[in-house]
Amino acid sequence: MIKRNCQACSKKFLTWPCIVKKGFGKFCSHKCSIPNKGGTFVKGNRAWNKGLRGVQQAWNKQTPTYKECPTCKEKFPTVKWEQKRKYCSAQCKAESMKGKSAWNKGKTNIYTKVMLKKMSKNQKKLWQNKEYREKQLTAILKGSIKRPTNLEQQLIDLISKHNLPYKYTGDGDFWIGGKNPDFVNINGEKKLIEVGNIYHHQRNYIDKRKAHFAKYGWESYIFIGDKLDEEEVIKSL
Prior knowledge:
Structural class: alpha+beta
Number of helices: 8
CATH topology of the largest domain: Endonuclease, Chain A
Order of helices and strands: EEHHEEHHHHEEEHEH
Radius of gyration: 39 Å
CATH superfamily of the largest domain: VSR Endonuclease
Distance between the termini: 92 Å
Strand order of the largest sheet: 5-6-7-8
Strand content: 5-15%
Helix content: 25-40%
Number of strands: 8
Shape: elongated
CATH architecture of the largest domain: 3-Layer(aba) Sandwich
Largest sheet: 4 strands, mixed
Number of domains: 4
């Protein structure tokens, strides 16, 4: 550090050479640098408001305008950069959104036909990807339907009771050609089991499922009914 003499009070003080090089380091304190506090005016170092308080308006001070809140009907002040503000508080905004869809501000047709067609095309392209398709289907199975179902739980109990070599995969853990079997063999054999109730499965359901899995070399055991017959299941397996 180097010694300098204050240009206002002539007092000696220490400062850094780099500060002097930039044209500063002329006063020992902030007080000496302000003219109305006893300091001497030096060109380039004068205070932004010329040392006069209350004479000039602050640079960011604005005269507010008042708007009426559509929810509580009370007036509130806004400034230039808040002209788009409609509500006086977050509570009033939340109150006005009740019964409306927040993401589209209550509007139903926010997408044009061109946009919808483009989105559909992109989604179809994504769906051709095997990994993406199976990931989405797994998420749907785990999120939309309670797993395991009542019939699946009955078969899980039978597998545990008779120590059968099958594990549960009906929650989307295993896929064969885009289809998710309920149970698969754990001994290396390409065998699977599926269960389902009568109401949600058509008459040709069993034939279609067996034909699909057979294309990939899997042998299928499919049981359709509102309740599993333990003897029939054990005998078939």
